[in-house]
Write a structure and sequence with these properties.
By secondary structure, the chain is of the alpha+beta class. The chain has 3 domains: 59-356, Beta-galactosidase, Chain A, domain 5; 364-515, Rossmann fold (3-Layer(aba) Sandwich), CATH 3.40.50; 541-578, no CATH class. Helix content is 24%, strand content 28%. The protein is built from 16 helices and 24 strands. The protein has helices spanning 2-5, 9-15, 18-21, 201-206, 208-212, 262-266, 276-279, 322-333, 337-356, 360-374, 384-389, 420-434, 452-466, 471-475, 489-498, 510-515; strands at residues 59-61, 71-75, 79-84, 89-93, 96-99, 113-118, 124-126, 138-143, 148-154, 157-165, 171-180, 186-200, 215-220, 225-230, 240-248, 252-261, 294-304, 309-319, 408-413, 440-445, 479-483, 501-504, 552-554, 561-563. The strands form 4 sheets. Strands 1-8-9-10-11-18-15-14-13 form a 9-stranded antiparallel β-sheet, covered by helices on one side. Strands 2, 3, 4, 5, 6, 7, 12, 16 and 17 form a 9-stranded antiparallel β-sheet that branches. A 4-stranded parallel β-sheet has the order 21-20-19-22, sandwiched between helices. A hairpin with a 3-residue loop joins strand 2 (71-75) and strand 3 (79-84). Helix 12 (420-434) packs parallel to helix 13 (452-466). The mean pLDDT is 90.
């Protein structure tokens, strides 16, 4: 009413505002007499394809006896475990070796092992084929993106060893499940064993005995934990700590035994295949401290009723301080940690594959490629004729800008249309970097001189696009794009000789080339007829020795010392000539 009696005073007050005056022209627009219409378009329904959940894809092997060990890399980005189908392998954190390992295609006998022993029959076998090398009634190895499993049956005992890396800690978990398939109660003794390094792989290979001198060990009974640490040699080095925890269930009997001295565990004249601590001794010695040859070994016994299953969980991890390693040991001693860490390991593996755009089948292909980089395989290496022609050593690569510190994949290309193989190898290099494995990729441009630069530019752009300046790229190896027409013949031979894997875009897809095997050409076997003669034993008279002590003595002439040992006998101490 006030607005009406005051001649629209409220409107005048509203329009006195400068911001309203700036838009008054809009109020003068007239209402349209007609309303334009558009014909209704056909409804366009877009159907999105819903991807099925990622299927559990794994590689399965039913034997450990393979020409080249089959491997699987497991990692959270920092802590890496490599496992072979025989149960051998290594554990590393970044560029430091946690356990001792050597490349040995023939024996493959370095790794983190679990021994099993029947306390009644004294039968001994291992959770994997190595190191005891006992043939199982049934043996199967399964490699998945997030874990590895080794299952076997021996003497009516089924064992299932499950291995994965914790996504939250620099640690690994090994769960051993034992099932009694027989009709009587079984008592099984389980012993872990691995050699401690906590040093760079190069330093350990160069002088393992010297490297061992800086390792100390201790035991924490309240957590069933062994702790090892490496003393720093200088102020620039940090002290590293390693924990090894055993968590048992209600089937465990007796107290936890432990050992950290390899000489007491293996014994003289023996190896990890037949250690004295497993075959001869009833108890581990419990030695800790600054031992000369450090190992970590924990032992327990489980009593399993018929049809019953027992679980044992071995966990190992690395930290930068004693406080951190104690917290980690307490965490992994908790029985509930296994399920949580197992679920997180699977989730992290799927997230990484999705982030990298790698399909599960492709990931297994990259893992098979890694086998050729870890173990020398003639199938994808240069032929012996090329190796014999090489007159340079590894330092010859420096002139090409290649350090030679990492395994080299050499790929040859001469056609721009075949660049899919290059793209896949660039993806493989980044994928393996997430597994803690660094390799260098050398792309050799073999295009004719007249058209080489166009292909060179394309390859360089591909390499630059694949390795963006991210944190991940800093952990990858390098990519080298070289023009073949600008490299000498001797450098061509050197590259081929030093490369662990040689591929060519002319030889098919990556899958086809990785699967390829080379049959060695052996000369024909010439058989000869041999007359069999009955074996006869003749006794050799022992020489008369002066000052004979039961093992040896001086010859009559006094110019030599002769040691006489029976089969399986050793001297009380090692005989060393200095």
């Amino acid at each position: 009413l006030a607005n009406v009696f005051k001649n629209s005073s409220m409107q005048r007050r509203f329009h006195s505002d400068l911001s309203v005056q700036a838009t008054e022209l809009l109020l003068q627009e007239r209402t349209p007499r007609t309303i334009g219409t558009l014909p209704a378009a056909d409804e366009n329904i877009q159907i999105e394809v819903v991807k099925e959940p990622i299927e559990h894809v794994s590689r399965r092997y039913h034997t450990a006896n393979r020409p080249i060990p089959t491997t699987q890399l497991l990692s959270n980005g920092n802590y890496t475990v490599m496992l072979t189908s025989a149960g051998s392998g290594f554990s590393r954190v970044r560029d430091l070796a946690v356990t001792r390992w050597r490349e040995d295609v023939t024996r493959d006998h370095y790794g983190y092992y679990l021994y099993l022993k029947d306390c009644v029959t004294q039968n001994v076998w291992s959770a994997g084929y190595q190191p005891v090398c006992a043939e199982a009634d049934r043996y199967e190895v399964s490699f998945s993106e997030d874990r590895a499993r080794i299952t076997r049956e021996d003497h009516e005992i089924a064992s299932d060893l499950e291995i994965f890396v914790s996504p939250e800690e620099n640690a690994e978990v090994r769960r051993l499940t034992l099932s009694n398939l027989g009709s009587s109660v079984r008592e099984i003794e389980v012993t872990s064993y691995f050699e401690v390094v906590l040093n760079s792989q190069g330093a350990d290979v160069a002088h393992p005995a010297f490297s061992n001198l800086f390792v100390e060990t201790e035991f924490r009974p309240e957590l069933s934990t062994l702790i090892a640490s490496r003393r720093p040699r200088s102020n620039k080095e940090k002290r590293l700590w390693l924990m090894h925890v055993l968590r048992t269930d209600r089937h465990s009997t007796g107290s936890i035994q432990y050992e950290t001295d390899r000489s007491l565990f293996i014994g003289r004249g023996r190896s990890a295949r037949n250690p004295a601590a497993i075959f001869d001794k009833e108890k581990l010695s419990g030695t800790v401290g600054p031992v000369l040859d450090p190992i970590l070994s924990l032992r327990t016994r489980v009593r399993i009723e018929p049809g019953v299953t027992a679980h044992l969980t071995f966990s190992s991890g690395v930290a930068d301080s004693l406080e951190a390693i104690e917290i980690m040991a307490e965490k992994f001693y908790d029985p509930s940690i296994f399920e949580r860490a197992s679920d997180l390991a699977w989730t992290q593996a799927q997230v990484k594959l999705h982030h990298l755009g790698v399909e599960p089948d492709e990931a297994h292909l990259f893992q098979r490629l890694t086998t050729r980089l870890l173990y020398t395989d003639p199938s994808l290496r240069a032929p012996s004729e090329i190796l014999r022609k090489n007159t340079k050593d590894l330092t010859g690569l420096w002139a090409l800008g290649i350090s030679g510190d990492h395994p080299i994949v050499l790929v040859r290309i001469d056609d721009i249309e075949d660049r899919n193989l290059i793209r896949q190898l660039l993806k493989a290099q980044i994928y393996l970097a997430t597994k803690g494995f660094v390799s260098d990729l050398v792309i050799l441009n073999e295009k004719g001189s007249s058209y080489a630069q166009e292909l060179q530019t394309t390859l360089e752009n591909m390499a630059q696009a694949a390795h963006t300046p991210s944190a991940l790229s800093l952990t990858c190896g390098k990519v080298f794009v070289l023009r073949g027409d600008l490299i000498s013949e001797s450098d061509h031979i050197l590259l081929a000789s030093e490369a662990r894997v040689i591929l060519s875009t002319r030889h098919g897809s990556l899958s086809d080339q990785v699967k390829r095997t080379r049959m060695l050409s052996l000369p024909p076997l010439k058989l000869k007829s041999v007359k069999l003669i009955a074996e006869s034993h003749t006794s050799t008279p022992l020489p008369q020795l002066d000052f004979f002590n039961g093992y040896g003595g001086f010859s009559a002439q006094g110019d030599e010392y002769i040691i006489i040992l029976k089969a399986g006998e050793t001297t009380p101490a090692p005989w060393i000539n200095i």
